[in-house]
Amino acid sequence: MEKLLYIDSCIRREESRTKRAADHLMKKIEESGKYEIESLCLMDEPLHYLSGDFFLQREYLLSEGQRKHRRFDYAHQFAQSDVIVIAAPFWDLGFPALLKTYIENISVDGITFYADIEGCHGMSQGRQLIFVTTRGGYYENTPLEMGSLYMEALSVFFGIDEYKCFFAEGLDIEGNDQEMLMQNLLDEIDKFAADRI
Ligand SMILES: Cc1cc2nc3c(=O)[nH]c(=O)nc-3n(C[C@H](O)[C@H](O)[C@H](O)COP(=O)(O)O)c2cc1C
User: Fold this and answer.
1) CATH code for residues 2-196
2) pTM score > 0.85 for this model?
3) Which end of the chain is more exposed for a tag (fewer CB within 10 A), N or C?
4) Which atom of ligand 1 is the closest one to the Cα of 92?
5) How many CB atoms lie within 10 A of CB 11?
6) Which of 11, 90, 171, 182 should be mutated for ligand 1, with most atoms under 8 A from CB?
7) Hey, where are the domains in the chain?
């Protein structure tokens, strides 16, 4: 059975439209019975960004080749997942800092990637990364959209074979029918689930 890791970075929790869409996708995934699912709600995880002693400890452990230290558990879990679903709202042209903090913790030389004289190479066994997001304004195909773009780059960096983004946008534009925009997103997820899950 494939391993699926669900990473919830929807800061507004039950109020979050992104979470509503991601929950819809996860329900389809659960119903398929095809995956062994692990979930991380980042808001409840003891995550730290890299600085000070926490940064220095990482440098020390990596220089000693100690990649079994518990602080690298997130990176091992990510690297060993076949499918990864990440849900995060569009914030400040990208995504919340909490998700970046998680990414700092999983980007570990020798676990999710390795570097040699030719550059960096992915080490993740991931087959697919699915990113679910919602945006207040319109950004598709503009240089200002750096949430999905970053996630796609991260997939390449970690060696994940396929990237897919589900998004709704324009949700905070006055006069837009929010419910209709969300329903379109849920319909798109349903179509994907019917074909690919
Ligand atoms: C801190 C913060 C930053 C945001 N930054 C942007 C932004 O740069 N561009 C945009 O269009 N909307 C922005 N928004 C609006 C959100 O993208 C939009 O409301 C989204 O649907 C929120 O998702 P959620 O309902 O899952 O929390 C921001 C909202 C917050 C709270």
Assistant:
1) 3.40.50.360
2) yes
3) N
4) 8
5) 19
6) 90
7) 2-196
